Amino acid sequence: MFDDTRPIFLQLAERIADEVLRGIYAEGEQVPSTNELALHLRINPATAGKALALLVEQGVLFKKRGIGMFVAPGARAQIALDRQRVFTERFVEPLLAEARSLGLTTEELIALITTQGGADA
Fold first, then answer.
1. What was the pLDDT predicted at 1?
2. What is the pTM of this model?
3. How many Å apart are CA 33 and CA 1, to the nearest integer?
């Protein structure tokens, strides 16, 4: 469920963001409370609260006082844009740098990607 490589609250925040991105939680929909998450995942409520607070800070969730946490308008698009930026930094830029060092043209690189990933990828 959780691994030892990163703090649990970061993994939980990422997991909830994944669920928003995949449409499990729609914009405007309520997400589980701190206590519900803690009970279900068997983690400390402070850890669950820290994950939710991080998502509020990032603008993914918003709090309705006395009611709970809800997915913010535009959260799904924001998560997708943030992930695309990270994907570009971690994978696309190094791929392009390596392709340049190998002397591959853009067309050759596209052909390699198409061959390896299929036409729909």
1. 75
2. 0.81
3. 19
